[in-house]
Amino acid sequence: MTTTVAIIGATGKMGRLVSDLIDRTDGYEVVARLDSHSELSEMLGAEIAVDLTRPDVSRGVVDFATENGLRVLVGTSGWSQDGIDSLSSRLYGRDDTGVVIIPNFSIGSVLATAFAALAARFYDSIEIVEAHQPSKVDSPSGTAVRTAEMIGRARAELGPVAAPHTDQRARGQQVSSVPVHSLRLSGLLARQDVFLGGTGETLTISHNTLSPSAYESGILLCLAAARTATGVTVGLDQVVDLGFGAPTSSEGASK
Predict the structure, then answer these.
(1) 23-29 own/partner pairs: CB under 8 Å, 24+ apart
(2) CB 98 within 8 A of CB 252
(3) 37 has catalytic annotation
(4) 59 contacts 80 by C-beta, under 8 angstroms
(5) Is the pLDDT of residue 249 over 80?
(6) Of 12, 83, 137, 174, whose CA is between 20 and 30 Å from 54?
(7) Which EC number applies (predicted)?
(8) pLDDT band at residue 75, thresholds of 50, 70 and 90?
(9) Does position 255 have pLDDT exceeding 50, yes or no?
(10) 13 classed as catalytic
């Protein structure tokens, strides 16, 4: 059985990657490729809409797709918690549609985030530095935001991290009490470092994306999950069992 797919943002870097990947993969067929000049109605007739647009466009794409009964895979970062909560409320109780939101399709990245959350209970000083190519619109990155939020949840009973002088702009943007610093540099694809400090030691958890091919296995896993998705599922860790407990998806999942 073949699942039909519409790619919104098909002419961008990720759009071209996903389009080529689906063309090489049995069980899927791209039936519409939308760019900035396309009408959203062109996605109608597909079973899954893959949103690879921009943060200011993504919400409208998802709203249109879900209103018309398509399931959606979102690869656009920059979704706020308020936006996710609002979407979850609107989709509550519906079984004809669902949305899978993935800040980062890399297996290595999601493992690094899980490791950081695991380590966060043992260190009070934690900061994140994320670096991407200059064309990346949003900062902090969706991956950095999710990492900070997972660190915050892991430390729920311990309290916020130790982050002095955060009133100074150079100290970064606080997300779940974690200072996050964003670099936008030519020559980079994607890198994230989580620095944890304790008495007499530091721990650094790093992930470096060297090629867009790093996203392919995660994309295929998420496409498969999107086929039957209901409600809102956020994060590759909710699609793949990382060994830290069974993955879950819910209509009120948080990013």
Answers:
(1) 25/220, 27/1, 27/2, 27/3, 28/2, 28/3, 28/4, 28/223, 29/2, 29/3, 29/4, 29/5
(2) no
(3) no
(4) no
(5) no
(6) 174
(7) 1.17.1.8
(8) very high
(9) no
(10) no
Catalytic hit among 37, 132, 181, 255:
132
Structure tokens given for 219: 């994309």
| Fold match between domain 3-104+213-238 and domain 107-210 | no
The residue extents of the domains of the chain are 3-104+213-238, 107-210
pTM attached to this predicted model:
0.85
- Determine the residue type at 175: V
- The CATH number of 3-104+213-238 is 3.40.50.720
Query: What pLDDT, on the 0 to 100 scale, is given for residue 244?
Result: 62
Q: Which of 37, 136, 165, 255 is the catalytic position?
A: 136
CATH assignment of 107-210, among 3.30.720.120, 3.30.360.10, 3.90.70.10, 3.40.50.620: 3.30.360.10
